[in-house]
């Protein structure tokens, strides 16, 4: 509920409700809220939990300001602080979805107890601590898997191609891995993937660079910040300090009616002269944008990929004093050139108006020391934008279908091992296995023309459905024949998708990113640029 509507409700309540007379004059909004709560507590048709009523009111008020503002109750406050330390939760580290009455594992946190105990994607959780969980909501299954640190949970899982397996797993702090993968792309260029900036992100990046430098002849680094939604700005400053001199501004913050406040590097840099390329996409946000923006402003790194998310709003946690807290925006972020990276204007959201892009007239042009031109209020625009090949419909439809999910799980469970991610190929022989699997599943995925048939069927009367049953069946056979034809037409693209998914099943995140180093267009473009110092320097304006 928007604030203005909430206050209107208070005023109308004061006028219309006459169950109890209050003699006090309501001369402040705080008194009005207390008055409303008192009336509802005493006179609402059912008994109300006053604390929850207050919490709901505060939640509505705070969240009306912008998408990042939140009110947290006591339990949510604890989880919020866990997140700030990089802890997802205390549990075993699985993602799940509901299928045929069971919780099915759809993903596994890297380094989690689930990964250590060989829980696999596709496993159906049948029992938890001896309790059958058939038709449980996923949130309830997740709650049962969580618990106190170092306690054990007993699972019975049903694994396709294996049957039932029992596991006893010790619960741990489930961390979202900061650096899920680092390695060399060739003899001299290193690649490091960073998921977030929580925890000790700066130390994790430093460790990865030092390891690559000690083991190889490191002459450049590609830092992949795609899908990195930020984290601690302190860690962002430490990360930038690895590549920037001491006493350099990494970013500014500016609160309402305050001056710009600089956040400055504290130490001498570890890798001042190491060539650097940063990869971003539309899901790179917040603290990761601050690092990319600083590197861009100082002509320190080439930015490659897609324009970032554009989150230039800084949030602060305010403890209310009763165990609850609120997380609200109190400043904006600016790059060293004082470019604001915020892309959307939320200033009138609490008045019921939608967010809006900043106008061209409100944007300023800034110039780096090497005379490169940059703008504000449009996130971080890469120096080199990589055009992506659009995924074809049949591949997209296969990837979200159960047949491909079931096939890659079957493949994982029926093969002890595969080649390492940098060498694995999904052979033609494997492809024929996949086609046979699809036939058994009656080609249970969609193609574009299938929707017309399904729509036609839905609008038929029962009588017409019966009379046209054989005709519809013949059309389905022709559709399946068309699906088979399209599968072979797009064999190359489908094989690539299956390759990626199977590598993920065997090697989880580390293998996934190792595989991407030879297939991802952003990574290949970044490697091409950083390998050619003349080209790399030209983009940075270095003569």
What is the structure about, briefly put?
With 543 residues, the protein is α+β, with helices and mostly antiparallel strands. 40% of the residues lie in helices and 20% in strands.
Task: Describe what this molecule looks like in 3D.
This protein is of the alpha+beta class. Helices cover 40% and strands 20% of the residues. Strand 7 (152-159) and strand 8 (163-170) form a beta hairpin. It is globular.
How far from one another are the termini? 57 Å
What is the overall pLDDT average?
Answer: 90
Unreliable stretches (pLDDT < 50, length at least 5) are 1-26
Strand content: 15-25%
Rg (CA only): 28 Å
Query: Could you tell me the number of beta strands?
Result: 23
User: Largest sheet at a glance?
Assistant: 6 strands, antiparallel
Based on secondary structure, the structural category is alpha+beta
Gross morphology: globular
**Fraction of residues in helix:** 25-40%
Give the count of helical stretches.
18
Secondary-structure topology with pairs:
Layout: H1 3-16, H2 29-43, H3 50-63, E1 70-72, H4 74-84, E2 87-91, E3 94-99, E4 102-108, H5 113-116, E5 124-128, E6 131-132, H6 138-145, E7 152-159, E8 163-170, E9 172-175, E10 181-184, E11 189-193, H7 201-215, E12 220-224, H8 233-241, E13 249-255, E14 261-264, E15 276-280, H9 287-297, E16 302-305, E17 313-319, E18 325-334, E19 344-345, E20 356-357, E21 365-367, E22 373-375, E23 384-385, H10 393-399, H11 402-414, H12 428-440, H13 450-458, H14 462-467, H15 469-489, H16 491-516, H17 521-531, H18 533-540
Parallel strand pairs: 11-12, 12-15, 15-16, 16-23
Antiparallel strand pairs: 1-18, 2-9, 3-4, 4-5, 5-6, 5-7, 7-8, 10-11, 13-14, 13-18, 17-18, 19-20, 21-22
